[in-house]
Amino acid sequence: MAKALALALAAGLAFSGGFTGIARAQEEAPSPPSQQWSFNGVFGTYDRAALQRGFQVYKEVCASCHPVKHLAFRDLAEIGYSEDQVKGIAAQVQVTDGPNDSGEMFQRPGRPSDPIPGPFPNDQAARAANNGALPPDLSLITKAREGGPDYVYAIATGFRDAPAGFKMNEGMYFNEYFNGHQIKMPPPLSPDQVKYADGTPATVPQMAHDVVTFLSWAAEPTLEERHRIGFKVIFFLIVATGVFYAAKRKIWSRIH
Amino acid sequence: MTDLAQSPVDAEHEDGSRRDFLMLTAGALGGIGAAIAIWPFIDSLNPARDTLALSSTEVDLTPIQVGQRLTVAWRGRPVFIDHRPPEEIKAAEDVDISTLRDPQKDSDRVKKPEWLVIVGVCTHLGCIPLGNKPGDDRGPYQGWFCPCHGSVYDTSGRIRQGPAPLNLAVPPYEFTSNTAIKIG
Amino acid sequence: MAAPPQGAHSSAQPSATGRNYGPLVRWIDYRLPFVASLEHHVTDYPTPINLNYWWNFGSLAGITLVIMIVTGIVLAMHYTPHADLAFDSVERIMRDVNYGWLLRYIHMNGGSMFFLIVYIHLFRGLYYGSYKYPRELLWILGVIILLLMIATAFMGYVLPWGQMSYWAATVITNLFSAVPVFGQDIVTLLWGGFTVGNPTLNRFYSLHYLLPFVIVAVVGLHLLALHQHGSNNPLGIDKRGPQDTIPFHPYYTIKDMFGLCVFLLVFAILVFYLPNMLSSADNYIPANPMVTPNHIVPEWYLLPYYAILRSITFDFLGIPGKLIGVVLSLGSIMLLFLVPWLDTSPVRSARFRPIYRWVAMLLPIDVIALGYVGSQPPAGFVVTLGQIATAYYYIHFLILLPLIGKIETPRPLPISISAAVLTEGH
What we know:
The structure holds 3 protein chains of 3 kinds. Chain A is mainly alpha-helical. Chain A has 8 helices and 4 strands. Chain B is built from 4 helices and 9 strands; from the N terminus they run H-H-H-E-E-E-H-E-E-E-E-E-E. A 3-stranded antiparallel sheet of chain B has the order 1-9-8, with no helix packed on it. At the A-C interface, helix 1, helix 2 and helix 8 of A face helix 4, helix 5, helix 10 and helix 14 of C.
């Protein structure tokens, strides 16, 4: 009986999991290849070194167009920076505050409690600076795309010369994994674009890997805590299930 | 067959200790599980991380001249910072504290005598006393004066007249350098 | 305190069930029979001796309802129901509120689990004939609960104000425009504007908070109706006497607790390791009224109705296909109300119905096929499959159910529950 139950539940979950992969069926672009991520699997964690390198890539490459509005400077303490380092990172950035007593908005150095400001004050300014395209906010990008981190990595590394006979529209770039293959973003990464503080060679795959690790953390900063608590909860429940099953059998033995 | 209608109380006494241990374990697991499960619900009501991030305010004291007073926001309330001139310090120290409603020495209320840091909320019913802006009525002791019900505070923020029961609160703060403090 | 009048209940006597309670409990119970009620409806409640694990799902549904309400109330303390702020308030819950991520994921996945449990509970009823005399009203109340759940879940999904929230709200509210004459006015009334917008969000929030308590009330009626005649059982035969039943406590309390542990285990795996598996990635994109997602898809538990809706791709006798689709989609649930009268079999349980037991198992397969159809873009082979599956769904209820009851020869029923249990050698 319990077996039939488990089978039904598994079938239900398997089917519903399949249903949510709906977008893949009709996409022209191929599925992104699977990458190795330090945070995959039941015991996965975010590699702190990769997070910091990834933040550096974000700051020096992506931040010129893409905001991460759901991150505050204080969140960076979780990727291995000390309180003073966080204050220093925040203070380097000018943040809009106000209005002051004259009724004007003004700039001041950032504080840890401030959200990380984006490159543009609003969407219209962003479009104006990018030929009408709106660079999406990256705080949730790895959760907001089918394929997750693998997809974002594939996009970052998927820029190619357009194949012979493929008609490219004005101002577009060919990307192997983007739906329709034409993307408004120019290839963001080139070799040695960034000088990593820890000396890691900044190849394009390395930078893409690091920035996607950073963005995965940005989208889901509580993953490690979730996995940690989950492990204990599930262990507890397995024990409890066993105990309650034994108790059930014991009580029911009176009438069996 | 007659066992079926047996009350659970009788049945438990038959197979004694093994069943009791199992039931006890089951009950304990259930209780522990329930208690652990409740905690996140309660803790979610505690201040969230973004609220806590605003729980301290750092203030640069260099722009405040001697004799000037500044109001800063701290945890949603005003804090008065007074760069006290010598007359104010002397007036605060030359007081027989046994005459005070809420006896406190001035030296117990400041870390450096020329800097008074107090929460600008009247201890009577919560209004914000006057005295921190130039031109404000400071009351008879040249400290602060609450217009709501007439409480009068001295240059150490202590209650002297009026209905307030306690001195203006001193928030937790520390000097992070000679010219800056961190409140909270 | 005045002395009790002569002949009143003396404080020295034990309760009617022979249990001893303290004086405070007896004082309260004499005036409001709380404990006596508990004893009658739970502790001593005579329950068929032969219930199998398919009977666990009722209590699981009740517990899931409580979980949804408790997490919902706490989440409501942090959520902001304004179009400009809703998405960000949910992200604040996920990042800054203590255990906010946990509460949100429990609420989100709890909704899915609630539907899974209720669908299994419903199919149990269909298979074992739990809707038949004298439990027709019990069944009807259950279908009402299902309708309320669907309304609640639909409105709840709009609240995070993601792309899927906004566009699912647009598509589904637009359906009401299929109503002849007044359609568009109804839609405008629902929206509170010219499109789904902030007024829509606010009223959905209000109703999303309200409806679960309406569900609680209907669940109360559902349980009252259940206790009038007691539970059905896998054999589908009535109890003849006390030898056919056992007290609910401790037998079914412990069995329900074991079932709860299994459920929580599955739930925990979802919440802690696969929290976004059942939902659409598009809902992590803030709502944009100017950009429609490539594939608008409802949550998995609404996919079968969505498939039926989209399967009518043609007009019929001058009636627009869209209207027929809406009617058939809603009809698929409304049809359930009629099941006690559509089924003509004199026998309840499919165990003794050699033809119906296979037909009954085909229905979930049909519904899963409909769910698959609903998840795919409506093109090619998928459309045909959807049309066949929709037709079969209606055939099952309107033709097969009445027909099979008439032509089938049921297997001989056991004399009694206890006799059957003894011969099965438990």
